[in-house]
Amino acid sequence: MDILTTMAEQKIREAIARGDLDNLSLKGQPIAREDFSGVPEELRMGYKILKNAGMLPEELQLKGEILTLRDLLECCQEPQERQKLHKKLTEKMLRFNIAMERNFAKPVFRQYETKILGKLGL
Predict the structure, then answer these.
(1) In terms of residue numbers, what domain contains 119?
(2) pLDDT one-digit tens code per residue, 55-113
(3) 55-74 burial, b if ≥16 CB within 10 A, otherwise e?
(4) Three-state SS at 31
(5) What's the number of domains the chain is made of?
(6) Does the residue 114 lie in any domain?
(7) What is the model's pTM?
(8) From CA 42, how far away is CA 74, in angstroms rounded?
(9) Does residue 70 lie in a domain region?
C-alpha cells in the first residue's frame, strides 16, 4: 500500500471516530454510478471533472436552455412575450446547431463515427 492510500484511510478512520460521517444524506444507500459509456474512454475523466465542477459542455448547456424555452413557450399566453421567447429559442437552436457541427468536424468524432453508426445499425 502506498503512502497516500495509508494517509487517506487514516483520515477516514479519524472522521468515523469523531462521528463526522454519521449524518450523510446517502448513508446506507448504494451510490448511483454515472454512465459515461457514450464518452470516449480518454475523455471520461475530463467530463467527470467538469460535471463535478458544475460545468457543462456548451452543447449540453444550450440543450437545457432550449428545453426550458420550449416549456416557457407552451405556457406563455401574451403575444409579445411569446415573440421574445421564440426569438431566444431560435438563437439558442442556431448556436446549438453550430456547436454540434463543430463537434462532428473534429477528428475524435471521425474516429468513433463508424462505431456509432454500427451501434445504430447503419
Answers:
(1) 58-122
(2) 777 877 888 889 899 999 999 999 999 999 999 999 999 988 888 777 666 666 666 67
(3) eeeebeebbebbeebeeeee
(4) coil
(5) 1
(6) yes
(7) 0.48
(8) 40
(9) yes
